[in-house]
## 1
Amino acid sequence: MQNEAGENVDLYVPRKCSWTNRLVRAKDHSSVQINVANVDPVTGIATGDATPYCLAGYIRFKSEGDLAFTALVQKNDAAMLAGSEE
């Protein structure tokens, strides 16, 4: 919920799995959130920003965590490279 100034005033904002868009419950102790550093494509130096990826325990339990994480990073990398060429 947001107030009139546009700030979040909720006590708990649930996370969503980046691969399945499922809500990650507070009691899902097998879920992970991984921050991947953004890299400048020209210099190859980290910019200081990071892109968070959240994987639910359901995906990790099915042994698809590596597949999902790799696909998400490659998809984001291709989008960032396409955006920098314009």
## 2
Amino acid sequence: HGETTTAMSQLRTCEAQVELAATELHLTQQALKLAEVTPGQARADLAQLEARLDRLQCHSIDAVSTAGLSSQDEEAARSLRRQLVKQ
């Protein structure tokens, strides 16, 4: 049962980071619309955000182990992982 808690906890942490990135994306879009940043600065900000999301996927989301989980818990973890990758 400890494996389930750990895997889901790690995925929930990843979920929070994905949600934060979505907020940052929205803020960058708004700043660009309102001319608070230049297109070049927005592009640079978005490139950094993309790199951070790539690292999050490769080193955090994909690294969560589902070994030792019951089939139901493993499916729940895989489902959450798929949702995070789609975002």
## 3
Amino acid sequence: IRSDVSESVQMIAEILPEMLANTRDPKSRAQMRKPDEVRAAMCLEGADELYKELSAASRLFAVETEELTNDLRVRVTIVVRSLQNAAYHMGKIEEGCIKE
């Protein structure tokens, strides 16, 4: 998961400013990932496995019944879902860069 998200962030940080400034070097196109790699990263392939690991580990966590936001399992689920959303949106940005 970390490598998928990191690759997208790095590519966007390098290529997008050049594109917006219209100073893109032709060599930068070689740095871009292939569309199928971008689509795979958008799905965050390791998320399902991470959910399984967290589910197994979370059995040891105390169950919070008074306040949902204090339940560690809920917080971890929100973090993983946020990573999935971030990967999806960065992938969309990468797709836009590839199309340019």
